[in-house]
Every structure is written in C-alpha cells, then in structure tokens.
Amino acid sequence: MEMASASHRSMMNVLDLLGQRWNMRILWELRGGPLGFLELRRRTDDISSSVLATRLRTLIDARVLIKDSDGSYRLTELGDELRPALEPLWHWAQRWDEANDTRTDSS
After folding, report:
1. What count of Cα atoms within 13 Å lies in the side-chain half-sphere of residue 25?
2. Which residues face 67 on adjacent strands?
3. Which residues partner with 31 through β-bridges?
4. Distance separating alpha carbons of residues 8 and 26, to the nearest angstrom
C-alpha cells in the first residue's frame, strides 16, 4: 500500500506542476528547441516578464528546463520525455476545437 501512496503522490505533484498557469504553454513552446526569454514571452502571448520568470524558475527547479549559457531556455532530457506524452493531448485538442467550431456554426 505504501508504494501506491508514493506513486499517487508523484502523479499529484506532476499534475500540480503542469497545472500551474503557463507551465504547459512554456513546455509546449520549447518542444521545438531552445528559445530566449523575449521570444518565449512573445510566443506565450506576452505574459508579464515577472510571471514568465517565476514560471521558468519553477520549471528549472523541477528539472524539466535548463537555462543555457547563452541565456536561452530548453527542455532537459527529463522535460523532453514529456513531448510524446503531450502529443495525444494536442491531437485531442485539435478534435475538440473542431467539434466546438462545428457546434458554434450550427447554433
């Protein structure tokens, strides 16, 4: 039973991390490679610099991002392992958007 509890705790910690506003968006934007702070801010709909800096620090502390010597941010090996897990969610989101567009058009 103790093992299930530890597993449950790990999953809840991951969901808490990924559920923080902007974290998933930051990870998604970095899936294609490293980005500097300004480009990352632009791609995340110009969120405030302070919020972006806080989220980047959180993701670095969680060991899913790293800041390179040139100042760009990239996924760590551990963070990169999230990419295949997010792909099905991305595909589902596309279908969900289409379903909502269809529903809106027929209303």
Report:
1. 14
2. 73
3. none
4. 25
Neighbour count for residue 24 (Cβ, 10 Å) = 15
Residue (of 58, 70, 71, 69) closest to 27 by Cα position: 58
pLDDT in tens, 40-53: 999 999 799 999 99
DSSP E strand stretches across the chain: 65-67, 73-75
Amino acid identity at 72: S
Q: Where are the domains of the chain?
A: 2-106
Please write the tens of the pLDDT for every residue from 51-77: 999 999 999 999 999 999 999 999 999
The count of other CB atoms within 10 Å of the CB of residue 94 is 10
| Fold category of 2-106 in CATH | Arc Repressor Mutant, subunit A (1.10.10)
